[in-house]
From TrEMBL:
<dbReference type="InterPro" id="IPR002931">
    <property type="entry name" value="Transglutaminase-like"/>
</dbReference>
<protein>
    <submittedName>
        <fullName>Transglutaminase-like superfamily protein</fullName>
    </submittedName>
</protein>
<dbReference type="InterPro" id="IPR038765">
    <property type="entry name" value="Papain-like_cys_pep_sf"/>
</dbReference>
<dbReference type="Pfam" id="PF01841">
    <property type="entry name" value="Transglut_core"/>
</dbReference>
<feature type="domain" description="Transglutaminase-like">
    <location>
        <begin position="7"/>
        <end position="85"/>
    </location>
</feature>
Length: 150
């Protein structure tokens, strides 16, 4: 799923997919949509799956602004293990491992990036709202929430 469903920003896609079925049909979605699809697939196989988030810079610098990045966690062997459905590209590599976490975005605390330690049972409402309110992926790039509001 990670490698068969393209990341919309990598393709300069205009379509905004949200649900698992839309993402599967279009074979395209940003991290949030890909996380929705992965959660649906894993839950369908009986694997407890949740949603996780990171606050990362949009283009690698604080001046470019911040946005949430979506990923998943699975409950295996009595603990939550995170996995990142984003997909690889030059400079970004994630792999699933039960021993060593390797996510798409290593957090750089010195740049005010945040690795939120929560596992949610459903996607965040403000993430879904941003996706619904964006007419295309170019708008969604800037409309994504910049942090989790608690």
């Amino acid at each position: 799923m990670r490698d068969e469903i393209s990341h919309s920003f990598d393709r300069n896609s205009s379509v905004v997919t949200i649900s698992a079925s839309e993402t599967m049909k279009e074979k395209d979605g940003i991290c949030f949509a890909k996380a929705h699809l992965l959660a649906a697939l894993l839950r369908g196989m009986g694997i407890p799956t949740g949603f996780c988030y990171q606050r990362v810079t949009r283009k690698g610098t604080p001046e470019s602004g911040y946005a949430l990045h979506g990923l998943n966690a699975v409950y295996l062997d009595g603990k939550w293990i995170r996995l990142d459905p984003r997909g690889n590209k030059p400079g970004i590599a994630s792999e699933f491992s039960v021993t060593n976490e390797k996510l798409a975005y290593p957090i750089r605390e010195e740049l005010d990036e945040v690795d939120y330690p929560y596992v949610y049972s459903a996607p965040l409402k403000n993430v879904i709202a941003a996706m619904l309110q964006s007419e295309n992926c170019q708008a969604l790039f800037y409309n994504r929430p910049s942090r989790i509001e608690r």
